[in-house]
Design the sequence.
């Protein structure tokens, strides 16, 4: 059941702080039903970009397009947002404040309470709903924060570092909840420093460096964008590969080697290798963290 | 086209799935107002302080009436027949004052003196050769002494008059003095001052207590960055409206409650015979309070948004507290032309005008004009506050000044 099918698009977004251009002509799209990872070093402009999408930071240039037209405050009101600096009311009960946030987004108090309870149950916080937020551990406060962003059945999710501070179990519950939304066609943009997590979760990737987009697109396309490399194992020694024409040897370590192959050299190479004790031959799929390091180098 | 036409209404969440996104809330300020009120009403210290204040108001009125109406039972001893007659004559005066007088006769003056010393009787009356002596222990109640003295002098005067061949009535003919009040309201004087003091103090208390509540509530959202989430859900000025309205309603309800309890107590104890004039001044006071407080509320909200920590509030709330103190002191001490002028200065008029109304006749148009001036000031301050609040509340980091905040970009 897909409830939403809208694309979030950022076109030429620019923001200056004094002389410094923090976000410089940034463009990318977040497709419906796709998990888009947003990576970049500290100060690369991720948070500023997300705050401009959410309308809490003034845009100095460019547009945010939702469903083919410029975004409106009403559109943003239906988004789910998790700001970088977490914030809820420390001295108020958990369920109470979640209901308030739901009501501000147009839910009835009853619906908000029902949905908040359901989400808190999935995070194992069902017995804490009456507690004050400040009495919870930081990790549990983070779960409440996530609940706040998912409560109203958002049409899009903008999550700034949603996984930081979560233990692996909580990360899994969170991913489950996000997958529910993705199945309904909700576009999700999340930033993270945990590149292994990004690698595991995201369908698309946007890499930001110094306020500029260094790479953006489908994660698999990005993985396969560079020249394909192969790993080969021929016992006892792979040194002979250096002399094969059309083969660039990038690394040799005993029987193992990493190669790049010129066009049309794969078949002849494999035939020769079969006589040299070939035990393994496979293309290397680079991880996104390797791509990230590559493009931001 | 309304929001409802564009967006489907909220559906109940599916049992295993999240709810359909709802349409934007129609009156965000109302949701904010409701929360502000609920948070305060479930705040134990607020509820307790309100109940304690109510109890104090009722208690002070009741104690005042008991003290004012307290009656004494006096006992006076005599050892001579003539003294007994004079003491008997003073009974009438004492009874008029609401007290009672009991007479005891002793066999000798010595027995009487012992009884006075032991406290068996409050006073003793002795006729001497050169005049009369009033015997007391350490002190004699002034009312009792006055009554006995009057009785003695009347008795002596009557005796002397008779000796001179005339009567007491002839001697004292034409000596009565009657007080005629040219302004029949003049006897309100003392009570009007008390009620005025109560008005001034209630305004002072509520303006600061609820003002600080607004400032702290704004600061809490700023400091904990909740405002970042709220700003994505509703226009930020709706947040300001909701806060100002919620706290103004609370302050209004509290003042109304105090006034109702206070006036009911005054009425029940019969402290003031006719409270109609207090009621009408109270009505004006409440109207002025609402408008005056709204004007201040916007300023309090801005102060909250300019601060970055609660310590900042202590320093930047100085000027507004000064204005409130001025309102208090003007209400208490200003007179004549100063009070007239003050009664037209917004905020200060919230105390000054009701006090003028308590003191005497003020034409209703003056009250309406003054109220309108305050309303204009409230509107102006709310619009100015809105501009600053929207900018400052999203600005983390250090505390800001008004000037810095106005220069900020949204």
Sequence:
């Amino acid at each position: 059941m897909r409830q939403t099918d809208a694309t979030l698009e950022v076109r030429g977004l620019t923001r200056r702080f004094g002389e410094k251009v923090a976000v410089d002509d940034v463009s990318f799209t977040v497709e419906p039903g796709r998990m888009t990872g947003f990576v970049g070093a500290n100060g690369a402009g991720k948070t500023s970009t997300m705050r401009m999408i959410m309308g809490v930071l003034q845009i100095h240039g460019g547009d945010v397009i939702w469903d083919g037209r410029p975004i409106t405050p009403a559109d943003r009101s239906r988004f789910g947002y998790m700001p970088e600096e977490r914030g809820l009311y420390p001295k108020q009960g958990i369920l109470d404040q979640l209901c308030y946030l739901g009501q501000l987004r147009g839910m009835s108090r009853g619906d908000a309470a029902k949905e908040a309870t359901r989400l808190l149950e999935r995070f194992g916080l069902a017995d804490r709903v009456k507690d004050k937020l400040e009495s919870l551990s930081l990790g549990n406060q983070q779960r409440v924060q996530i609940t706040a962003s998912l409560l109203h059945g958002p049409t899009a999710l903008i999550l700034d570092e949603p996984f930081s501070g979560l233990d692996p179990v909580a990360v899994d519950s969170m991913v489950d909840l996000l997958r529910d939304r993705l199945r309904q066609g909700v576009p999700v943009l999340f930033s993270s420093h945990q590149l292994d997590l990004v690698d595991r979760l995201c369908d698309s990737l946007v890499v930001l460096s110094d306020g500029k987009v260094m790479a953006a697109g489908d994660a698999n396309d990005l993985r396969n964008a560079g020249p394909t490399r192969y790993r080969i194992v021929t016992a006892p020694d792979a040194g002979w590969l250096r002399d094969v024409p059309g083969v660039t040897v990038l690394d040799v370590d005993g029987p193992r080697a990493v190669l790049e192959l010129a066009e049309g050299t794969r078949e002849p190479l494999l035939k020769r290798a079969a006589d040299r004790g070939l035990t393994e031959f496979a293309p290397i799929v680079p991880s996104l963290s390797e791509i990230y390091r590559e493009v931001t180098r | 086209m309304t929001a409802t036409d564009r967006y489907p209404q909220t559906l109940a969440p599916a049992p295993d799935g999240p709810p359909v996104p709802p349409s934007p809330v129609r009156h965000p300020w109302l949701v904010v107002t409701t929360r502000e009120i609920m948070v305060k009403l479930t705040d134990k210290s607020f509820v307790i302080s309100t109940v304690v204040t109510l109890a104090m108001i009722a208690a002070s009125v009741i104690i005042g009436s008991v003290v004012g109406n307290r009656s004494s039972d006096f006992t006076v001893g005599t050892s001579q027949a003539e003294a007994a007659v004079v003491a008997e004559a003073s009974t009438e005066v004492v009874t008029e004052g609401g007290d009672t007088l009991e007479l005891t006769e002793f066999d000798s003056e010595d027995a009487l003196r012992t009884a006075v010393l032991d406290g068996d009787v409050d006073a003793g009356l002795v006729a001497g050769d050169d005049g009369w002596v009033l015997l007391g222990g350490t002190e004699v109640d002034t009312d009792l002494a006055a009554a006995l003295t009057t009785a003695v002098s009347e008795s002596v005067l009557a005796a002397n008059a008779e000796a001179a061949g005339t009567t007491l009535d002839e001697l004292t003919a034409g000596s009565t003095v009657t007080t005629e009040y040219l302004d029949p309201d003049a006897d309100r004087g003392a009570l009007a001052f008390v009620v005025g003091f109560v008005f001034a103090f209630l305004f002072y208390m509520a303006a600061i207590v609820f003002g600080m509540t607004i400032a702290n509530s704004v600061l809490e959202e700023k400091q904990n960055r909740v405002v970042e989430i709220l700003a994505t859900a509703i226009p930020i000025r709706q947040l300001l409206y909701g806060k100002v309205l919620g706290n103004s309603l609370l302050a209004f309800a509290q003042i109304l409650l105090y006034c109702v309890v206070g006036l009911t107590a005054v009425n029940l104890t019969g402290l003031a015979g006719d409270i109609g004039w207090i009621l009408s001044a109270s009505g004006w006071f409440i109207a002025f309070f609402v408008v005056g407080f709204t004007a201040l509320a916007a300023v309090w909200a801005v102060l909250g948004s300019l601060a970055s920590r609660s310590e900042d509030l202590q320093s930047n709330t100085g000027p507004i507290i000064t204005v409130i103190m001025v309102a208090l002191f003007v209400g208490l001490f200003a007179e004549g032309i100063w009070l007239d002028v003050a009664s037209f200065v917004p905020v200060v008029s919230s105390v000054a005008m009701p006090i003028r109304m308590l003191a005497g006749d003020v034409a209703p148009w003056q009250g309406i004009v003054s109220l309108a001036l305050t309303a204009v000031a409230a509107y102006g301050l709310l619009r100015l506050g809105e501009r600053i609040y929207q900018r400052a509340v999203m600005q983390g980091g250090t505390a800001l000044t008004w000037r810095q905040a106005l220069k900020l970009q949204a």
